[in-house]
Amino acid sequence: MFVAKHNLAFLNSEHASKLFAQMFPDSETARKFACGRTKTTAIVKEALPPYYHAKAINSMSNPFSILMDESNDKQDKSCIILVRVLDAELGNVKTKFLDMPEVNIGTEKNLYSALRESLGRYNLDFSKAIAFMPDTTNVMKGARSGVQKLIKRDNPHLYDAGCICHLADLCVKAGMIITFNTAAKEINIFLICGLMNPKFS
User: Fold this and answer.
1) Is 112 in contact with 147 (CB distance < 8 Å)?
2) Rounded mean pLDDT of 78-101?
3) Which CATH superfamily is domain 63-162 in?
4) What is the CB neighbour count within 10 angstroms for residue 139?
5) Which of 34, 68, 89, 116 is deepest in the core (most CB within 10 A)?
6) Contact assessment for residue 118 and residue 80, using Cβ atoms and an 8 Å cutoff
């Protein structure tokens, strides 16, 4: 779990077994501990995903929001589907991975079908979806068509929350422009005042 949580290389696990034995020389458990790169890789890639995915699905008996974005890869294109849901165990809202179907022809109908198939595969009640957070492309949020329009046809009460990542990006960009312009003006004033100062003439 430590390796996965902190995004460490699996190779670090080779040293952990030796380290624990040195740190706790009186512990038989530490001396016998063996979880190198191969075992750690198997645990993180094979054992943990089904467990946490099942937990995510079980938590979705509560109302949930859908986050959706398609890739721009040149070869096989994927569509990542995340959900934001109240985790009753932790007592807060968490973003969880749901599915990543392959959608090579990214039309609104294909993306919508992929979403519905993913929800259906895990027996999730689409009527419990309360918000949709896609990126701002035409295929997702077009004025006349798009995935959002197809979704609202089946769930008219779904709230359009927009993509939180794109909104954050726009806010940061706007903030940087304002900050840069303000800083540029102050530097300009400083230079002008400095040049007008007799000491520097």
Assistant:
1) yes
2) 84
3) ATPase, nucleotide binding domain (3.30.420.40)
4) 19
5) 68
6) no
